[in-house]
Amino acid sequence: MLLKRSFYSPHPLVVGNAPLVGVLDLPSTNIHRPPLRLFFPADLTPDASQRRRRPKQANYFVNNRVAYVLQGFASMIVSRHDTRLFKWVLRPLMWLISLFAPPRYLKIPETVQVTKDSPVRYVPPTKKQSGKQSLVVFSHGLTGTGEENSVFCTSLAKRGYVVACIHHRDGSSARVPMPDGTCMFYEHHPTDDDYQPKRRLDQVKVRAKEMLTTCHWLLGTPDNDSSDDKEQYPLLKEICNNLESKSVFTSGFSYGAATSALAATMEPNMFQCAILLDGWFHIDFSSRGIEFDFPPEAFGKSSDIDNDGKITSTTTPPAGLSIPAIFINSSQFQGYSKLYAATNRLADQINKSYKMEAAEMHVIPNTMHQNFCDIVFWLPRWALRRGGRMFAIGSADAYEVHQSIMDWTVQFLDKHA
Q1: Element (H or E) spanning 275, and its range?
Q2: What is the pLDDT of residue 35?
Q3: What are the tens digits of pLDDT across the range 89-136?
Q4: Residue 132 DSSP symbol
Q5: Which end of the chain is more exposed for a tag (fewer CB within 10 A), N or C?
């Protein structure tokens, strides 16, 4: 009861026809497919009440490993993971802090954690709902994880979508498990005078390829199908067999929005539309003379840029992002004039390719970048009021922000599904 009173509850946001939302965590078993968290419409099987142990609600973090995430952020902000300070001080300290961290005890509402023997069944769309299963593939932000937008993904799944949230393995995540049992921590890139734009351009391509690989794997494209993984979970095989290849949507937050835009540029026939949350669409190191729209391919430009920010390619540039898209932005990012101008250029480009208003643009007042993530549900209300800016969280009501994001997203998907 104390937790409910002290924290914003995302429960009112998770509404829809599905009885529950199944959450299936799929670790990476090979170098090709990244780790996934799959959200899907679900219900308990008729024999669930006869089981000695009822299925548990899903935690915000896979296997409730809050300490792993805290260690990732400590490695990124304080001291890198290969230092003595991290090994002997920060790592045990993060384990200790994790015992008292609220996300350890908070659950994602209306969910059930799926294991191999869970009494959970997939609820496919009815014929009245067109009978086809739509897929949303989601990409997380820079320094984030595939677990920080779980409320958004759960809300979509409750409304009947299957959502695949990717945990990227390109060095942009705070910490991600690898197929060989090790972990990859955030890769620190040079900044200021040593900034190398090519490294970030190469990185976003890896992320976009992971999104496309995930799509092909879930849809069962022969060259990308890994039946061994699916055989372990009959439920997963049933979901994949019901997916409609002509009803796939790309989505992402921040760096993930840029990743989504690039993936849709690389394979425009894969996606019907894009949901882009507070996207990072411009790189500005003007102090070094480096400045360009990001990723360049999404803007119809070449990405062959040297470390001085100059285009080196003479080949024909790509066509650019041309599918319908919704841009939902924070007022913080709107305040960065060059970034917001680039976002508007991308929207105008889409509208010109359709000769109609195929791009929607929204800004949520009094918001900062992290208002779009689940951190607003992990911190007590008093912490949001007093230290919100320290966490890049604006003064807007947490519930109202996510309600606006969800309302605009659902209306947009209903229009383009």
Answers
A1: strand 273-277
A2: 92
A3: 999 999 999 999 888 889 999 999 998 888 889 998 865 555 578 999
A4: P
A5: N
Q: Which two tokens stand for residue 318?
A: 């790509």
| Cα-based distances in Å from 165 to 76, 197, 343, 347 | 22, 27, 23, 24
Task: Express each pLDDT in 192-227 by its tens digit.
Answer: 666 677 788 889 999 999 999 999 999 986 555 455
Q: Write out the two tokens for 118.
A: 């869970």
Tokens of 359: 């791009």
* Lookup: tokens for 392: 């890049």
Crossing angle of helices 66-77/91-98, nearest 10°?
Answer: 140
Structure tokens at 182: 């090790």
Instruction: Give the distance from CA 402 to its chain's centroid.
Output: 15
Instruction: List CB contacts of 279: < 8 A, sequence separation 6 or more.
Output: 252, 254, 257, 258, 261, 327, 329, 343
Q: 256 by DSSP, 3-state: which?
A: helix
- Reading phi first (left if > 0) and then psi (alpha if -120 to 50, else beta), residue 47 is in alpha
DSSP 45-75: -GGGGGSSSPPPPPBSSGGG-HHHHHHHHHH
pLDDT classification of 390: cutoffs 50, 70, 90: confident
Which residues are CB-neighbours of 311 under 8 A, at least 6 positions away? 301, 302, 304, 305
DSSP conformation class of 278: S
Task: Round the average pLDDT of the chain to a whole number and report it.
Answer: 87
Q: Is the pLDDT of residue 182 over 90?
A: no
Residue 30 Rama label (left phi>0; alpha psi -120 to 50; beta) = beta
| Maximum C-alpha span of the chain | 67
Mean pLDDT of 258-287: 92
Spatial separation of the C-alpha atoms in residues 130 and 80, rounded to whole Å: 51
